[in-house]
């Protein structure tokens, strides 16, 4: 969509270290307004750290994040108000609360009751399953339904950008498909810009405009789904056969 255009949200030369562990090294990537962009890569590649770096939840030692072309300096708890919502890995829903109460947790900071109701109506319309079960406890939902709830809660913040960490993790193939369809629908109907971290390459490449491939904390490839599938980068990265160019044998 806009590979060379202006980015709405952008990591610029970000390096992250957890003690001795270099989780990210000089990572630059971003998402343009209205795009769906994937961040892919094997376990430990640094995918979650990319999203955490945006949210101020990772120890960034170098680089910065740009939001609407300006440096993002807001502390974590204010970032959601800036228009960036984060749905973390592992769909942490509040099991002892009802579905509607869970959704309301997504916009706690909002004092405007009419706006809250408007958002709730939008989310319940987008997710019929949440509407149907809105008074049930979240603990009574299946894994796929809990993931829909986690997406819905993210949307309650009324975000311009939604950051999704592994939304299909641990779900059955048919449910994986439903989640990807829902992500595409959010993009289409609400015009939300989306950055999605995924393991599930096949499914995610069907819905994204562009994707970045991460390996050992570095961006090793980026491009459109077609351009990525034309290369063998994914096989190489996922089978651990990437030639880094540094230690050729
Ligand atoms: N809190 C932490 N403390 C120490 N090391 C961490 C921490 N979080 C992540 N790491 C390390 O940083 C690297 C990147 O982790 P990250 O969670 O971003 O990977 P990922 O690509 O999301 O992996 P996965 O697919 O398993 O979710 C890994 O080596 C990981 O062990
Ligand atoms: Mg992760």
Work out the strand percent.
25-35%
Net shape: globular
The share of residues in helices is 25-40%
Give the CA-CA distance, first to last residue.
39 Å
What's the structural domain tally? Answer: 1
CATH C-level class: Alpha Beta
CATH level 4 superfamily: P-loop containing nucleotide triphosphate hydrolases
Based on secondary structure, the structural category is alpha/beta
How many extended strands? 10
| Secondary-structure element string | EEEHEEHEHHHHEHEHEEHH
How would you describe this structure to a colleague?
By secondary structure, the chain is α/β, with parallel strands linked by helices. It has one domain (9-238): Rossmann fold (3-Layer(aba) Sandwich), CATH 3.40.50.300. 35% of the residues lie in helices and 25% in strands. It has helices at 47-54, 76-82, 99-104, 113-126, 128-132, 143-155, 173-190, 201-205, 225-230, 233-238, and strands at residues 9-18, 21-31, 36-40, 60-67, 70-71, 84-87, 161-165, 193-198, 210-215, 218-223. The strands form two sheets. A six-stranded mixed beta sheet has the order 6-7-8-3-9-10, with helices on both faces. It is globular, with a radius of gyration of 18 Å. It binds adenosine-5'-triphosphate and magnesium ion. Magnesium ion binds next to helix 1.
